[in-house]
Design brief:
This protein has helices at 16-29, 44-54, 63-87, 98-108, 113-124, 139-148, 162-178, 192-209, and strands spanning 4-9, 34-38, 91-95, 131-136, 183-187. It has 210 residues and is α/β, with parallel strands linked by helices. The structure holds adenosine-5'-triphosphate (ATP) and ligand LXEULUCI. The site of adenosine-5'-triphosphate has 15 residues, from helix 1, helix 6 and helix 8.
């Protein structure tokens, strides 16, 4: 039986990585076979593309180049890691996926959500996540959280203006309405434990429905 493909989305510092780490341990403890991964990245080629996209020195990068690089990294990640995991029945937890491109490049960068959706449909074919948990947070709070986190390197996208990050959030909120059958919104301003508990409820409900 094919596995489950779940993605986790939200602005910088919303708590995705923190919750995915805890959720992976929780699901493994329950006996599930889990692969947790991230975008851009997750496999060697895509991590190399990530380093190019997020290099703070690449200030000249064109918006469409950026969108295409994210889509290329996604394609390789899907083919090399996500599809094989799903075909062997695993649960895939992915830190960001297509909705990041729609919110950041399509909406905030102004390339157009439908235009970015179309290049990503070429990249991912039928492989949309069956569930996307969107961690909704005021970007100002998220940026303050990552500034406090000394181990987190500041990348080229983090360095965008607050108004860019506010547009990212607006983009996500529109996506959550448009794809309401897939995207579930969580209030990520709550404590880590509360956000984790809400995520577990949503994910377990989805798993048990099959
Ligand atoms: N609910 C929360 N309340 C307060 N602090 C939090 C919460 N969730 C995460 N944090 C802290 O905020 C920082 C960012 O968290 P995390 O790396 O999980 O976010 P993220 O969504 O993965 O960020 P990014 O996408 O920018 O990498 C970490 O220092 C983490 O401990
Ligand atoms: C997948 C994807 C990501 N982004 C942006 C979002 C973040 O600013 C960085 C990734 O950094 P993180 O610490 O791993 O969250 O890249 C994007 O703009 N478009 C995308 O498709």
């Amino acid at each position: 039986m094919p596995g489950h493909f779940f993605s986790f989305e939200g602005p910088e510092g919303a708590g995705k990585t923190t919750v995915i780490t805890k959720l992976t341990a929780f699901l493994k403890e329950k006996g599930f076979d889990v692969v947790s991964t991230r975008e851009p990245g997750g496999i060697e080629i895509a991590e190399e593309i990530r380093a190019i996209i997020l290099n703070p020195l690449h200030t000249k990068m064109d918006g469409r180049t950026e969108a295409l690089l994210y889509a290329a990294a996604r394609r390789q990640h899907l083919v090399e890691k996500i599809i094989p995991a799903l075909e062997s029945g695993k649960i895939v937890l992915c830190d960001r996926f297509i909705d990041s491109s729609l919110a950041y490049q399509g909406f905030a960068r102004g390339l157009g959500v439908d235009e970015v959706l179309s290049i990503n449909q070429f990249a991912i074919d039928k492989y949309f996540p069956s569930l996307t948990v969107y961690f909704d947070l005021d970007p100002q709070i998220g940026l303050e959280r990552i500034e406090k986190n000394q181990s987190r390197e500041i990348n080229r996208l983090d360095m965008e203006s607050l108004s860019f990050h506010n547009k990212v959030r607006q983009g996500y909120l529109q996506l959550a309405e448009r794809f309401s059958d897939r995207i579930v919104t969580i209030d990520a301003s709550k404590s880590i434990d509360e956000v984790f508990d809400m995520t577990v409820t949503i994910v377990m409900e989805k798993i048990s429905r099959r």
